[in-house]
Amino acid sequence: MSRLIIFPIALLAAACASEPPVSTNELAYVEKPTETSFWFSDEPEVQPAPLQYDITKAGLAPKSHVNILAEKVVNELVLQNDSLRSDQPLLVTTPVNTSDYSKTDALGLQLQQGFVAAFHSHEFNLVDLNVANALRSTEQGEFILSRDWKLLPSDLPVSHVVVSTMDTTPMGLVLNARIVNVTNNRVVSAVQTFVNMNSLPGYISPSNQVIFQDGLLFRHEASGQGNAVVLGAKL
Q1: Termini Cα distance of the chain
Q2: 146-171 b/e (C-beta count within 10 Å ≥ 16 → b)
Q3: Which of these, 150, 156, 88, lies nearest to 119 by C-alpha position?
Q4: Distances in Å between the alpha carbon of 231 and those of 68, 105, 193, 202, 207?
Q5: Could you tell me which of 33, 126, 140, 207 has the fewest CB atoms within 10 Å of its CB?
Q6: Gap between the Cα atoms of 133 and 152, Å rounded
C-alpha cells in the first residue's frame, strides 16, 4: 500500500519541477489577455476611437412637397444648362404670375427660397440680393434681410439670373423656370413642369363655387371647376 501512495506523489512532484516558473506577464485573463491584466504597467495602450459623423444617423432637415418640387426643378435646370459655370455668380428671383410679372404669392416666395437651397447643393456661386448693406437691431430682433431697394446693394456682379413664372389650372400648377444671361438676355437653361393640386397641400386648394376675378363675381355649377387657388394669394 505504501508503494501505491508514494508513486503518484513522486510523479506529481517531478512534473511540477520540470515546468518553468510562471512569469508576471502571464498573470492575465486567458480569454482576453490583451484587454485585462492584473499588472497595469503591462496593459497595452488603448487608442481612442476617432469621432465620426454619420449623416444618415444624425438625419437631415425634414422636407415637404414644395421643397422637393424646388429640388426637381433645379436638378433639370442644371441638366439642361449649356453654358453657365458653377463659379459664375447666379441670382434667384421670385417666381411671378404668368399674367402679371409684378405679382407673386406665398407659393412663389417659398419656391424662391427652395431654388436657392437646391442650387447651393449643386455648388453654384449664389448671390443673395436681399442682404442689406447694414444690420438692423430692434426690440423684436436683429435683421439684415430686406426687400427695400434703398437698403440693398446696387452693384452686385451678377451675369445670370433665375426667372420663373407660375399659373394655375383647375387641376394644379404650371411652373416655368429658366436661367438667363442678363448681358445678352440669352436663355441658357429652361424647364417646364406641371404639379397636381394634391401634390402641394397647404399651398393650393380647389376653387370655390363662387369666385371673384377681374372685379367680377363668377358662379360655377360646382366647386373646383375654376382655376386652383393659391392659399394666401390676394384675390
Answers
A1: 119
A2: beeeeebeeeeebebbbbbbbebeee
A3: 88
A4: 19, 8, 20, 7, 10
A5: 140
A6: 6
Q: What are phi and psi of 121, to 5 degrees?
A: -65, -20
Burial level of 50, CB count in 10 A (0-12/13-18/19+)?
exposed
What cell does 97 get?
404670375
Ranked by mean pLDDT, which of 49-63, 124-138, 194-208 comes out on top? Answer: 124-138
Q: Rounded to the nearest 5°, which phi and psi values hold at 49? A: -70, 140
Virtual torsion, Cα 200, 204, 208, 210, nearest 10 deg:
-150
Q: Are 34 and 46 in contact (CB under 8 A)?
A: no
Structural contact between residues 164 and 96, judged by C-beta atoms closer than 8 angstroms: yes
Query: Cα(172)–Cα(205) distance, rounded to whole angstroms?
Result: 9
**Amino acid of residue 167:** D
Type of residue found at 202 = G
Identify which of 165, 225, 177, 159 has the alpha carbon closest to the alpha carbon of residue 80: 177
Contacts of 158 (CB under 8 A, 6+ apart): 89, 90, 91, 127, 182
Output the pTM of the full model.
0.69
Which residues, at least 6 apart from 45, have a Cβ–Cβ distance to it below 8 Å? Answer: none
E strand residue ranges, 41-185:
89-92, 96-97, 125-127, 131-138, 141-145, 160-168, 172-181
pLDDT tens column, 199-212: 888 888 876 656 66
Cell reading at 4:
501505491
**pLDDT at residue number 48:** 61
